[in-house]
Amino acid sequence: MTMAWKHALVTGGSSGIGRAIALSLAGAGVAVTICGRRESELAKVADKADNIHAIVADVTDEDSVRALYAQAEAARGPFDIVVANAGIASSAPAHRTTLEDWNRIVNVNLTGAFLTVRPALAGMAERGRGRIVFIASVAGLRGSAYVAPYVASKHGVVGLTRSLAAELLKTGVTVNAICPGYVETEMLEQSIRRVMDKTGRSEEEARRGFAEINPNHRLIKPEEVAAAAMWLVSDAAISVTGQAIPISGGG
Ligand code: NDP
């Protein structure tokens, strides 16, 4: 797929879903700026394609995001595509969730998503074109036990998607969320380790447990989520906005 778009931002592009999206966009000829907190992990992805550029930035830090925009847009022009993908997860019963843990999850997954896209909105609207894609989760569409801050943050991302889409309806800018089920990434590996520690299950049993939560009983590949993102940023999806699209193996 070749793209008219010139420059994309993918937060959390050093790992998992973000890395798959960055590689797909770069493969389609788009210059891609990736960010994350760990320089070493970003460098491994930037080494895979000449048109992937790494900048260390923390999406919870407004100044850090502002500096990223200034540096990346000065070098490669305004972002046509922004993929707010960076996210973290943890699990605990709600009554044992500390305020610190709540704030940590909400700050990255929801406030970080807002801070990621906000600087792009006015420019995209003025230029009359642009694509915003949030990586939410099926946790943005329904409740789940022991992950209250994660679920609340992802419901927030879906609400943010719908609000921004409504605000930008007549501008030529689309705003959508992708809602994956369990995807084979480093985040899932961490969840598998937590289950092994807490329940004494083997790695195989823990992995199978997560696969079985997806209705079709298979884990999703990051490339499947990237394919959905590529469709959302394509010309074919110009009439798709304000949607929260499950990539989840069923209802
Ligand atoms: P990974 O843990 O593999 O990747 C997360 C990425 O986010 C890393 O690049 C990480 O880099 C970056 N990141 C984390 N915190 C920050 C921060 N404060 N600022 C900038 N970057 C940050 O996870 P996935 O690829 O699985 O997750 C990507 C998105 O997909 C998340 O939003 C997640 O909630 C969502 N998702 C994942 C599912 C799954 O089963 N894996 C299912 C549904 C949704 P660094 O640590 O260096 O900052």
UniProtKB/TrEMBL annotation:
<protein>
    <submittedName>
        <fullName>SDR family NAD(P)-dependent oxidoreductase</fullName>
    </submittedName>
</protein>
<comment type="similarity">
    <text>Belongs to the short-chain dehydrogenases/reductases (SDR) family.</text>
</comment>
<dbReference type="Pfam" id="PF00106">
    <property type="entry name" value="adh_short"/>
</dbReference>
<dbReference type="InterPro" id="IPR050259">
    <property type="entry name" value="SDR"/>
</dbReference>
<dbReference type="InterPro" id="IPR020904">
    <property type="entry name" value="Sc_DH/Rdtase_CS"/>
</dbReference>
<dbReference type="InterPro" id="IPR036291">
    <property type="entry name" value="NAD(P)-bd_dom_sf"/>
</dbReference>
<dbReference type="InterPro" id="IPR002347">
    <property type="entry name" value="SDR_fam"/>
</dbReference>
